[in-house]
C-alpha cells in the first residue's frame, strides 16, 4: 500500500502544480473516476480523467486540492481536505472534499470524488 499511498500524494501535488502530465503517468488506463452531479459522472482511464480535469481548467478557472488527512484501511484510502476554487488566479471559495481511492492488487482501480458545496463549484464550472 505504501507505493499507492505515495502515488496518491503525488497526484494531489501534481494537481496543485497544474502538472497534468505527471498525473497521467500515475493513473491506469482502466481506472474509474466518479464525481457527484451536477458536475460529474463516471470517467474511465487517462482520457476520461483529461475530460474531467478539462472541466475545471477553462476560462481562467481551476481547482486546487490541499490534503488535510489521509487514512487507509484494507483496500481503501480516504483523503480529505480543502478544495480552492480559483478564477483568474484569485481564490473565490473554499470547499471541503473527501475522496475515496479503491486499490486492488497494488493498483488504483476507482476514485470517488466528493465535495461539500457543489453549488459553489457548479457556479464556476457549469
From TrEMBL:
Residues forming the SnoaL-like domain are 9-111
Q: Any keyword Hydrolase?
A: no
- Keyword entries, A-Z: Isomerase
Q: Which InterPro entries match?
A: NTF2-like_dom_sf, SnoaL-like
Q: Name one GO molecular function term.
A: isomerase activity
What name does the UniProt record give this protein? Ketosteroid isomerase-related protein
Pfam family, any one: SnoaL_2
